[in-house]
Automatic annotation (TrEMBL):
<dbReference type="InterPro" id="IPR000792">
    <property type="entry name" value="Tscrpt_reg_LuxR_C"/>
</dbReference>
<dbReference type="InterPro" id="IPR041664">
    <property type="entry name" value="AAA_16"/>
</dbReference>
<dbReference type="Pfam" id="PF00196">
    <property type="entry name" value="GerE"/>
</dbReference>
<dbReference type="InterPro" id="IPR036388">
    <property type="entry name" value="WH-like_DNA-bd_sf"/>
</dbReference>
<feature type="domain" description="HTH luxR-type">
    <location>
        <begin position="852"/>
        <end position="915"/>
    </location>
</feature>
<dbReference type="Pfam" id="PF13191">
    <property type="entry name" value="AAA_16"/>
</dbReference>
<keyword id="KW-0547">Nucleotide-binding</keyword>
<dbReference type="InterPro" id="IPR011990">
    <property type="entry name" value="TPR-like_helical_dom_sf"/>
</dbReference>
<keyword id="KW-0067">ATP-binding</keyword>
<protein>
    <submittedName>
        <fullName>AAA family ATPase</fullName>
    </submittedName>
</protein>
<dbReference type="InterPro" id="IPR016032">
    <property type="entry name" value="Sig_transdc_resp-reg_C-effctor"/>
</dbReference>
<dbReference type="InterPro" id="IPR027417">
    <property type="entry name" value="P-loop_NTPase"/>
</dbReference>
Amino acid sequence: MTHLVGRHSQIEAVEKLLSLARAGHSGAVVVSGEAGIGKTAVLQHAQQTAVASGFRVETSVGVESESQFAFAGLHQLCAPLLDRAGTLPEPQRAALGVAFGLHGGVAPDRFLVGLATLHLLAEAAEEAPLLCLVDDAQWLDEASVQVLAFVARRVGAERLALVFGLRDSGEGSGDRPPVAGLPELRLERLDEADARALLGAALHGPLDEGVRERFLAEARGNPLALLELPRSIPTGDFAGGFELPDVLDVPHRVEESFRRRSDSLPPETQRLLLLVASEPTGDAALLWRAVGLLGLAREVAMPAEQAGLLEVGARLRFRHPLMRSAVYRAATPPDRRRAHAALAEATDPQVDPDRCAWHRAQAVLGADEEAAEGLELSAGRARARGGVAAAAAFLQRAAELSPDPAARARRALEGAEAKHEAGASEAAQELLTIAAAGPLDALQHARVALLRAQVAFHLTRDGNAPRMLLDAARMLAPLAPALSRETFLHALDAAVHNGSDDVTHIAEAALAAPAADVPARPVDLLLDGLATTLTRGYAAGARGLWSAVDAVRASASAGPGRDPRSDGWLWLAGRTAVGLFDDDLLHDVATRNVQLVRECGALARLPAALNLLSITSVLMGDLARADELAAEAASIMEATGGVELRHARVILGGWAGDHATTTALSASTAQDDAHPDRGTDATQAQYALAVLHNGMGSYARAREAATRACTSPEVAIRCSSLTELIEACVRSGQPEDATQAMEEFSARARVRPTPWSLGLEAYARALMSTGQAAEDQYRAAIEHLGRSRMRGYLARAHLVHGEWLRREGRRRDARDQLRTAHELLSDMGADAFAARAARELRATGEHPRARAAQPTDELTTQELHVARLVATGATSREVGARLFLSPRTVEAHLRNIFRKLGITSRRELRELQLT
């Protein structure tokens, strides 16, 4: 066990992980450190321990040259388990099949592939505990990284453990942290005592003490250096001097040691090693064919095998990952090209066309159109499998090989678009520079401008991005009118999101753009409606917005012939429906948005859809449901490594009266330079603060927050904030400000009256009225809101009516209203408003009833979500597919649910009527 000297704590941690996994408590860990620090040794020990404990072990090793093949690392891990794919739900089975190239189909969402992988591993773990080992994770392809990181974050009650070996960045491993956020075991360099012990174990003869000390100093506690460097030194040199150190650091010294060992082998064996280094799959049949093409005999592998460098069997593999890079880097460019040429010729282009094209591209010297064309075809196949990152890599290399400048520019542009789509926006900028060198036609110039703007907005929320998008839209107008109009809408939405002063200018330009096709698409109607509203006022644009949102809803509800491109605008349609005070339209759009995203498995889009439905649930007074949706969105963002979406949480916090959460989220938004003061995120936070402080009776603070929220150019935020502003102004003694806000709100509410808008208008007028006029308005507010879905506002209407009645001295009438308000607000979890109702009730002489304990009060948010779904009759597998959990984890949640609720069956759960 000399290779594990000084690693006792890490070994104990890994063994504990395996013990927990065997008991049904899944886990994952990242073993990290510099090259040669002992990561592979720890993983090998984990494998030996697992096998001895009855685990099944599956492995995958990232290889630098393999990182261009989408899902290559994942396929390496899962291939032995694919006989269980028949147990997966059809969407998951299809996604996995397309991702692995087993059959054609629509490019799958990579997180649907992640869910399929999670369930596949869980199925295997039912038979025996399963250990998944992934070494050199820094070189995994991007698609595999995201899927495995997703799985690692979603494992729960499975008998499953995942262990990743990750080399530090800056050593040829790239800059991205592929499995960020997982528990980490950091391997540091050995202390002096352990280093001496390990060096002693590596030596087989006497060593001059001076040389020993220099050796220890050179190795600097790197275990692999201590084990490997002595092998590269002739025995005669041990007792007499050691060459002076050069400028290389330890990991490169380790590679240099491997290089020296391989250099001592016969030339034919070195050529074989270069073949193995150039073909990371280790496929023996393929490699032996390539060996024959180079005129070599199989026996040339024996010296490498005897030297402990190569394992020969069904696959040809190096004994240590650093050996591959050492051999490949040491080879001359002509030798590398010869190796790749042999591998290209040995690879069947019908069975594996992408690998054949890749090797052929590495074999050419200078530009080569045939090789570039092959890579371009590979890019198309990679994109069809959902491997956008791989498509980008193929296109980048194709651009480098293109002899024709126009073809080079076209491929660079397409590669840049793929890089941006894959999330590598900074890398996209580099390819854009190549593309911009041209020559480009007018449409390509416009696409370059569009992508520059999209990258700028994505990376930094650049304040210039809306104007850049506008310029791109204008360039596209005569060339691609449909794309131009979509770009105008993106520009307008970016300006609104940023709170830009360019909003009106962009809206005017959009109205002047070429007219939409006939019939107009939903996106065209949205563009016209928003642009009209922002330039000519709410009254002029609202009816057009109604038609637009209704068109988006109809398109999303259409049958198999519907245009799925409209689905991408459902989130904007939902936000717009809030500004139209159409609760039925909002409910339909928000619900359908989540449904469609779930059906197509677009997990990357699901958090935004869940956040919209969460906010909708808040307004409808179902704060518990809103909390479940927001929690699900947050868990998906955590599992996928996405950026936190705060708006649902902050609005939920405001309505729930959660002062700590609301103020903390608002403060973090205010401190983030990516969220300007008049931008959507900042003004949503101010709206939430206005609701919070109105609930708490801090009306001056509510007025301040609502005033800031009303600066938003977004229709939904401004409309929602006006009623909060009116209430805060009335209660803080600012009647003139209340009157001004009332005039604007009333004008909006009367454009196309709905029960929601009429109820809020009556609510606001009642606050500003006295005597019988106030009484009539309060009753009208309750009547109208009672006919809407907006129970939150209805409960608040009962509250303010009761408060007014008490101040009028009508204590008995006040009690009825306040009692109703208190019950509604308490049941929905609007604690600040409920506390206000309780105070008012006590002032009438009635003690408010404590909220009756509910059986579900002890359940966590996720347990409640699971319970609701199971109560509808869903199976554990169906619930797992919905919540991105394995069936075994769902079963574990159910056991906790049954224990907390004091029941023993799903039938009893259904009888509780949780839905």
